[in-house]
Queue: 4 jobs
Job 1
Amino acid sequence: MKNFALIFIGILFFYQGLAQNYIPTKENLEARKEFQDLKFGMFIHWGPFSIPGSGEWVMNNRNITVKNYTRLEKFFNPIDFNAENYVSLAKKAGMGYITLITRHHDGFSMWDTRYSDFNIMHTPYHKDIVRQFVDECHRQKMKIFLYYSLLDWRREDYSFTTGRTGKGTGRKVQGNWSDYIQFMKNQLTELLTQYGKIDGIWFDGYWDQVQEDPNTKSKKLYIDWHMDEIYTLIHSLQPSCMVGNNHHMKPLEGEDFQMFEKDLPGGNTTGFGGASASSLPLETCETMNDSWGFNITDTNYKSTPTLIHYLVRAAGMNANFLLNIGPMPNGEIQTEFIDTLQKIGSWMDINAGSIKNTRGAGLPLQDWGILTQKGNIYYAHILNYSPGAGPIQIKGLNKKILSVKSFTGGIPLTFKKVKEEIQVDINKIPWDAYDTILELQSN
């Protein structure tokens, strides 16, 4: 009974900071639908952490002190940065939105903020990066989401004594936690009042302050994050702005979409996931190599087919695919990333109709691939198949199928229903190296 009481208290503590009775506005619900229609976005991890060329966690991984890490500010001068190039690249790749790092765990702010001296205006570059990105996204009609880190390896008013990371940055004094909460509110207010329409805020979770009981697997927060106040602030400033939080758990009241890190919805190959997919719009984020931030030694680039298959599978599971780039310190994007995005874009030029504006068909992965759905039309994405192996078998589609044809070229195909399967003969159609797509019309 004592253990149960402790667990119950922990649960109450966990939930006391959640937004209560959240009712999304009409504008917010419309934004959710538009978000789901886009299906493909660009994630951008960039800041002074790119200078050592060892990823965005370099401050933590090398135990760089606040004093020494601050010196990077004087070296961050991205003279080759051009927001138009970024947005145009994303658009040509078939992406519909960009999620930009505004402040990562190192505490550096990529905009002209009044609430921290550690920001882009104190670098030799001395130009507001967030302003340039947001303005260009608005100009090119690209939706813009802003990533904002909840934890901070720099500030003393962040509860670093209970946090699991950032222990080696030399902080000695534990400041006032309420000051940190107010600091975040102040910065979020700047981002949501000084840059025009912002389509979403992407929080990177508070996993740093979560303790898991090894026996019960229940999770307990060390501190109150005041998420109810923060979520309410965001929705009051911009009602249509979507809020997501990468806490790797069941969505909380006040959140508008659910994200999965380096896994498809419900998956847990990395140890970050395990939460089941909710009815909210879904998103999975992934890297193009193994790193989020620029890593000069990471050449483990994912192939174009691998990333297209990831995008297709995410769409089939009713999720968006947020694909990351980690720009170099000078503001350039690696040629490897550009080349791959251009190849994906060429594929999307032909096949985007089977991805964008679709929803998951509510069916699991098939041996050969997965289905997406747009009204009474289903798209069978054949990802694993050897030409000449016979008809594909579509399982679980309990609809009367009126016709089947190839997505490219519209070649009619013969099909039949055998018990609970729809068998389609695909030997007459050209084979696509990435994804051979069928279009099924139902009643």
Note: The longest strand covers residues 97-103.
Job 2
Amino acid sequence: MSGTKPRLRGKNWLRLKGKIMSLTVAGTDYVQMPVGTTGQRPTTPAAGMTRYNSTTTQLEYYNGTAWVVASAYYPISYLVVAGGGGAQTGGGGAGGLFTNSLTVSRFTTYTVTVGGGGTGSNPAIAPTSGSNSVLSGSDITTITSVGGGKGGASDVVGSRNGAVGGSGGGGAGDSTGPAGSAGTFGQGYAGGNTASTSSPFPASGGGGYTAVGGVGTGSTGGAGGAGVANSITGSSVNYGGGGGGGVLRSGGTAGAGGTGGGGAGSNNGNGTAGTANTGGGGGGFGIDTSGTNFGGNGGSGVVILSMPTIYYSGTTTGSPTVTTSGANTILKFTASGSYTA
């Protein structure tokens, strides 16, 4: 039929790979796509192929990598955890945490920022708080989880009180009875106040997502506040534990780290760092006569997105870990990046 104009008799015509093909138009206002099950998809698909999947009851197209649903919007679940606070003798507060779901728009790019953990310190250096983690996009309300507050410092450098954060830092081991600081509403709890003002000067624990930091009293450092279990990855993982308080002089017992990655305090050495990608606070150091012992660093944050695999576009930056669980695809960002829906 090359060079011949076809007549239109109840059908429209189109040219496909050099051939003129008919496209049936039933009634007045629709075109019927090919219909088939998931198992009947083309064995060697090409980008742009479009069909109605009778298994999923969704219109789908092949994007060059995978079959995706041709929908303008779809749901995503998220977990956004900020970096935990660094410790000195007071335990670091856990990074703030938000988890929920939202609706995203096809072809829109969503930016992910993963907060780092704060730095632990010795008496000559002030510790630092954790950094915020953020999920943002042009059509959603920006989600910002606040970095965990640094632990209190038992010397002239840095405040003896813990710092405000997603969860607050614990008070230092000190004769003045330092206070823990507040967490951020909806993201975490306060660090513990220090009750003991005499040797061995136990410090208090940093706050966690579900509980305040323990109080340093008698000869025992306060435990870090507990975090929370979350199964967005398909298995239960604890996030947002506060760091345990250290003990400044000999003869005491350090505080345990909070469940959810909080580092344990020490009664004779360096504090334990918060667990990476949990937002756990760092644990406080113990017995420092030479100025060489350090509180633990806060654990880094994480951003996790979960969506039905039939919607997953496959377009990311920042090299997230991509896994599947049941019918969902999960993106775990341990460094900043983006996802284009």
Note: The two ends are 42 Å apart (CA to CA).
Job 3
Amino acid sequence: MPKGYVNKAVEHVKNAGGLYLSDEVQTGFGRIGSHYWGFERLGTKPDIVTMAKQIANGFPVSAVATTREIADNCMNGKTTFATYGGNPIGMAAGREVLKVIDDEDLVANSHAMGELFFKNLRDIQTRVPTLGDVRGQGLMIGLELV
């Protein structure tokens, strides 16, 4: 996306009284290789952050981070953020995955492996005419087949 796009969109949303939600289900936990969260790379500060999948390496765990004020307004007995019910096994799995991400510096690994992946994809582009655009960051990679 164009540089500054999300920042400008957030500004418009905030000026209209809205909230900025950053969905980190795909981009979170260092997958982009430069930051732990995608919104950090953009230089934004979300009101709500949703996350899942990577928290527990596929074990059904998801989470929402927000302010107390927003949570209190949403948790009125009618609304919940839950996709999966919390349980001790899921929490233990999530805690261990987060420790591994940090202890094994997997953010830096995402960057290094992404660079290698991009290098090889760009090499393939020179030989395979059906491989169009290749873009992304870290291990968030998209490619176009034409």
Note: The chain has a mean pLDDT of 90.
Job 4
Amino acid sequence: MGWFGRKSAAVPAPALPTWLGEATAEVFPLGYEARLKEVFVRNPVGQRAVRLVAGTAGALPIDAVEGKARAVALVKRPGLIEGIVAHLLLHGNAYVQVLPGRSGPGELFLLRPERISIEPDALGWPAAYLYRTGLKTARLPVRDALGRTQIIHLKALHPADDHHGLGCLDAAAAAASIHNQASRWNKGLLDNAARPSGALVYEPEDGATLSTEQFARLKAELEQQFAGSGNAGRPMLLEGGLKWQALSLTPADMDFIRLKEAAARDVALAFGVPPALLGLPGDTAYANMKEAGRALYRQTVLPLMERVLQGLAAGLTDWLGKLKLAVDVDQISELNEDRRALWEQVNAATFLTDEEKREMLGFGPRKRAA
């Protein structure tokens, strides 16, 4: 006889969703690929932060302040800047191979940083880069036979390493793991009738206990008929001294909600993105969003782009001569207020001549009429 007034049907237990990934008992992931999956592939905050910074950097207008404009066409190849910035954020290193053309550099090709190892010379300076694809390894010298740069290595700051940069994955891995675990917790609650579990108490009048067979059958019936979101609200019919005791979450158990928000903020902080731009609660007022947009450019995107453009220009100098690349900040709408304030200050400086004012604002000398 079934414990709930009817015979239980042999319904298989639902399989664990594959998107949950590894077991929740795992510690913080180790290794680049494992942390990449935890922080970028599976975590919405980390993925959005990287895409926001990399996408914003890739859409910036770039000019050749000094040197050939051909370099701008090479650098602005679709996806190149976005990929470089993403690798710098995640891995801390970006490797760009300069492929020769008919008369100078033909293309800039972005390499996977986790596949590259550095071969130093006798003095410890990089002599070549070893690029592994499967079982094959290609040796790419730093310079070709004509002394021109073949591999442009861009790296983030790493005080403890001479050859490699440090990405943001290590700093964001713990917070991303906590955030993902909180999401799995919520999914677990949903799978268990969208409410905390309870206890089925057996209190017979004669004080007897359940046999092993009765206990196993009772547990199976609970999992098959009353667990899962599809069985939420199904009434129980108890008999034989059984009584259901519901358990509620304590304030300490509910603290995981605030913990998840704090973890999301830590992930955003690791990648230099203001939390307001990621839709985190508490900072989404219009004024905060406006200031957050300016902060993203001033504190994260523009300094990172300056490092990238300086490295690319230095690597292309061997091919195209003296070169300097820069972002045209006058075309960034989020910085209009900063630019307007600068113009007003310069215009109010009566001790400056018109030519000096033009130079301070980035304009060349006024053309003289012939």
Note: The beta strands are 62-66, 93-101, 104-111, 116-120, 126-133, 136-141, 151-155, 198-202, 242-246, 324-327.
